[in-house]
């Protein structure tokens, strides 16, 4: 049975043989108790990421060594189940040969229109009246060195907005939420300027923390330093290059970046110290949480009333 998208595979397919075209994105070689090599594989298309076992790794070792990950493969697999989750047991593996498919066809993409998102960023930029903050955003977001990455990278590796254009999508959600709260609570224009700036920059350094899609891992810099430090450090350096940048605004923007996770145990080295930083934290959390829940609900293929437990939220969700 040929499967057009991995999302189609559900528990009703357990013990069935399927065929599919997939993108291999990760591979870990392991050794069983009887000292036979096998591989844990991560395969995906635009609809879903799935784990797979290749018990006959030694048969395909030459192929996988020569091609590596981030290539398209034709697979035949037996659908199984492990710890309540559907898992593929690979029976046959071939490199896909053909020009009708490319790697980008297998990468999840934001459902929002790219041009509309770019225009959205520019609209928020135009609402900033402080010239030193506009200059900061010009140098960090809208310059040729960074805009392409900022507009194409994911916002996370797994939990939320982990798709092409995800960082820009996530940033626009936060700015939209923040604008609503700012208007409701009658923030001053200067406070809104700072809130927009820290909203655009809070996750900016994920362009350094993550590898380029379709790779799902962290860069060495990301592993060693993380996006919060990288972002604050780079922002501080750029601020110091802008003549007359107010000291107070430096502190407020940097606190917003450093504190946007909201809690020390969640990875922020400091807590939010301004109303703008507190708003940013809650907007960031709402954007990530809601996207995480909706994406998880969309991945469920059975007819159960509740989802499985979403690990990062600690509970199940009602699907109707």
Describe the structure.
By secondary structure, this protein is α+β, with helices and mostly antiparallel strands. The chain folds into 2 domains: 6-106, OB fold (Dihydrolipoamide Acetyltransferase, E2P) (Beta Barrel), CATH 2.40.50.140; 114-298, Hypothetical protein af1432 (Orthogonal Bundle). It is 42% helix and 16% strand. It has helices spanning 57-67, 114-127, 131-140, 147-152, 166-184, 189-201, 206-209, 220-241, 247-258, 275-299; strands at residues 17-31, 37-44, 49-54, 71-82, 85-95. A 5-stranded mixed barrel has the order 1-2-3-5-4. Helix 2 runs parallel beside helix 5 and helix 9 (247-258) packs parallel to helix 10. The chain starts with 16 loop residues before the first strand and ends in a 21-residue tail after the last helix.
